[in-house]
Amino acid sequence: MRKLGIDYGDARVGVAITDPLNITVQGLETIQRKGSDKIVLKRLDEIFSEYEIDTIVVGMPLNLKGEKTVRAEVTEQFIHKLKCKYNKIKIETIDERLTTVAAHKTMNFLDVNKNKKRDIVDTISAVYILETYINKNK
Known about the structure:
- The chain is an alpha/beta fold.
- The chain has a single domain, classed as 2-Layer Sandwich (Nucleotidyltransferase, domain 5).
- The chain has 4 helices and 5 strands.
- It has a 5-stranded mixed beta sheet with strand order 3-2-1-4-5, sandwiched between helices.
- The longest helix has 23 residues, at 114-136.
- The chain starts with a strand and ends with a helix.
- The mean pLDDT is 88.
């Protein structure tokens, strides 16, 4: 069974997935929200029909002091939707502080074209979220 990582954002949702043995994490895609969680949930349905997922890990946007932000409240509402729709799948959260910063550093190091950065930053952030979860639970 695989684990799925989610970097939930206003405009885009980054998605990452583990291999079947939960050893490595790969970026899967970035979902354009277009202002609606229905689009995200529909795409997740398609992903769940393709892969056997036992855990969803959602990045929780805390501030640098570790406190919840307004963005965290919006993320919690999304997590509630996940729990209602996918009640047989374990849903976890993990502190996602500085994952976007790390994703930008990675893209800069790899000299990613600036026009492509916006399309992949959330996917890379989802990879970091899921890697953090996997390493924490080893």
